[in-house]
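Translate sequence into structure tokens.
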Amino acid sequence: MKVEDQQRPEDDAASARPPDPSRTAAVATGNGATLFPALPVPYRQRRRWRWTSIAAGLVVLILAAGGGAYWWQLNRAELPVGIVQGNGRIEADEIDISTKFAGRLAQLLVQEGDMLSAGEVIARMDTRDLEASLMRAEAQLQQAQKAVEEARATQEQQRSQVALAKQQLDRTTYLVQRGNATQELLDQRQQQLDGSTAILNAATARVAQAEHALAAAQHEVDLYNINIADNSLVAPRDGRVQYRIANIGEVLPAGGKVVTMIDVMSVYMDIYLPTLEAGQVKVGTDARIVLDAYPATAIPAKVSFIAVQSQFTPKTVETQTERDRLMFRIRVRIDPALLKAHAQAVRSGLPGVAYLRLDPDAQWPARLQQMKGL
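Result follows.
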């Protein structure tokens, strides 16, 4: 056997592997398909294309960052001297409507998103046990009233006895002075008066005791009425239902949450300013709020709170330089009268920008004087 006819193990392994698509290509001929070796792609060329793609991506990111920085600087440059800005989100005070007593939720009268008026009933708890206790307390109240009436009648009777005993004593005294009655009879009349007086004092004490029992019974009835009324959950302020936490039929503990609402009369935005700007802000400083959802509307507002201590810059706050790490929280609150007129449009969580006029003589730009849509 010739050497050329001998097949090496390496050749068998190579023949068992499938052909590399990057090194072969199929060319159709009249007799069928024939595989011809294709030109390999140089490694350096593939590497160059990869680095080119990475460089292009970096250029796009740099341009985007530069454009955003330019827009941010341009936006600040448009503000006149004496007016500063800070970004934040519109927030409203949340109110949890909770049960006062443990019990079963009998009625739930609102849905998420419903507008509420102050005093409007939101839900009712099962009060059958309290109503039964109220009926018992009312019966005890009636008994206490009758006891007071009986005690007063006894008191009047004893007053009559005292008056009679006093008259008899006076007559006997007159007769003894003229020798027409004995001293013994006078002593008896005096004893009768003293006894009647003691009985009257006891009757008067029983009247006071009965009146106190009547007042206690009345307070018991009032307490049950208050507890029954407290089991009707009402909205303390004008607002909107944010969440429905409980469902009808659920047994809730004392303090169990039923509904969470937002107070549409207490809407504000918290912003963060560096030391140089925050030091010039005062409570009552005039402000404007522009929301991202309504860029053409400037909402009038006032500064209502200034933090007394600085804090690290929150991640959601944009700053001009990296040195502005310690900021002061400023709360800008919208006028409640304006909110009441536009309660249906109040939304919490909307991002926006608050502008503060540090210099009272500074004029608001035209875009911050527009109130379209309000």
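Note: The radius of gyration is 46 Å.
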